[in-house]
Amino acid sequence: MDTIMNWINENSGLIIHYAVQAVLALIIFFIGGRIAKFCEGLTEKAFDKKKVDKAVGSFVASIVYAIVFAATILMALSQLGIETTSFIAILGAAGLAVGLALQGSLSNFASGVLIILLRPFKSGDYVEAGGKAGTVKKIEIFSTELRTPDNKVIIMPNSSIMGSPITNFSRESTRRIDLVIGVGYDADLKEAKAVLKSVLDKEERLLKDPAYTVAVSELADSSVNFVVRPWVNSADYWPTYFDLMENIKIALDDANITIPFPQMDVHLHKED
Questions:
Q1: Of 72, 144, 148, 252, which sits with the fewest C-beta atoms within 10 Å of its C-beta?
Q2: pLDDT at position 92, please?
């Protein structure tokens, strides 16, 4: 017992020093933990304000918490006099290995976050992206689900969507229908134009503003081509498109205006 007391007396300064260091390390650990929690909550709130998917917000917030908490542990260990350089090197090597192993998944995750933040489309929009087209059904962390008009389900990696041009057909409330109608060179162009306009005037789904356009666009090899460009509400696009194509054909037939089509002449030679 006397030996212990003597050792304590002889090393009292050192003991007090390490005790103070330990207390400071605990304080750093405690405060750092609170700061990590605060940063996690702040991140979640920021994502909530942006109306980001909760799963994405929670995942990113947990990453922020882990980074801040890891930095807190390293600071606490450093306060105790423990060399942290080796720990940092090990963590860096481990992070690099994990990043290389999961680079595809991480790329999809980052693209998913960008889709949710930038909002190039939302659920219910009809889009074309990554060479595929369909209605957006789900936007998830790593992939996006599209449903085609013929009811096929396409699961696309988010990285392939963000890595290509995105065409959103549903974002605007109105769309223009672009039709090219060809008539024969022997047709009366004024009559043909009047017939096309009469079909458009009868279609109630067409918008008055902007007004439609009917004009000669090209003197082609075998036809005179008209461009027919009316505007409709986006929801009425395809029904109106199909009806216009049918009604224009019927109206031109009734007016005896021909629509040229490719023809092939076959010549037969009789050998003696």
A1: 148
A2: 67
> What is the per-residue pLDDT across 94-109, written as a single tens digit (0 to 9) for each?
565 655 544 556 788 7
Mean pLDDT by 10 residues, the chain (272 residues): 59 65 82 86 80 63 80 77 64 59 67 81 88 87 87 90 90 93 92 95 93 93 93 93 95 91 62 60
Look at residue 62 in the predicted model and tell me its pLDDT: 72
Angle between helix axes 103-118 and 85-101 (nearest 10 degrees) is: 80
Instruction: Please provide the distance, in angstroms rounded to a whole number, between the alpha carbons at the two ends of the chain.
Output: 134
Neighbours of 168 (CB within 10 A): 16
**DSSP letter for each residue of 141-185:** SSEEEEE-TTS-EEEEEHHHHHTS-EEESSSSSEEE--EEEEE-T
Sign of CA dihedral 114, 147, 179, 196: negative
CA distance 108 to 162: 9
What are the helix (H) ranges across the chain? 2-10, 12-49, 54-79, 85-101, 103-118, 158-162, 189-202, 237-254
In this prediction, residue 102 carries a pLDDT of: 47
Phi, psi of 140 (to 5 degrees): -110, 180
Total Cβ atoms within 10 A of residue 252: 20
Structure tokens at 83: 């060399």
